Amino acid sequence: QMISILSPEEFITKPSDGGWSVSQVINHIIISETGTNAYVNKKLLGLANIPKAGMSNQLKSKALKVALKSPKKFKAPPVLPDPENKSMEETMKKWGELRTKLLKTFESLPMEALDKEMFRHPVAGYFTPEQTLHFLCDHIKHHQPQINRIITTIRHEN
């Protein structure tokens, strides 16, 4: 993992082009995953009223997967606030705690939730829990090249 080679100073250093720091990228992922976790937990409260997912959900999930794998840059959806530039220690601790919460949420889903529209992506629409997990993984993979570029840039600039 490229992040482990960074110093705490490099973690919060923004490239001279005005882009995000590694901290901001990770905090963007944290914001996204925190919202996902909260949304799924909220939907569990009214599970009986949630529609089942269909072919449309599957197609949208696959389309988002393709988009996230492309080299194209995307603006974060407007529902997500700009990420803060927090310390490496604070950021990685928070992300670790969140990963534990996400694991608990998804491991404890009842069987009747597995084919339902449990999460609403701000652009692609509703996903099943499995499609949501795929999105979370693809979202991280989408940001890995960005993190690598930031690291290369800030090390070249310094």
Number of helices: 5
Question: Any idea what the radius of gyration is?
Answer: 17 Å
Structural classification: mainly alpha
Strand line-up of the largest beta sheet? 1-2
Total count of strands: 2
Based on Cα principal axes, name the global outline. elongated
Low-confidence stretches: none
What about the largest sheet?
Answer: 2 strands, antiparallel
Q: In which range does the helix fraction lie?
A: 55-70%
SSE order: HHHHEEH
List the helices and strands and how they pair.
Layout: H1 8-12, H2 22-44, H3 55-69, H4 88-107, E1 119-121, E2 125-127, H5 129-157
Antiparallel strand pairs: 1-2
Structure report:
This protein is mainly α and about 160 residues long. Helices cover about 60% and strands about 5% of the residues. It has helices at about 10, 20-45, 55-70, 90-105, 130-155; strands at about 120, 125. A two-stranded antiparallel sheet has the order 1-2. A hairpin with a 3-residue loop joins strand 1 and strand 2 (about 125). It is elongated. It starts with 7 loop residues before the first helix and ends with a helix. The mean pLDDT is about 95.
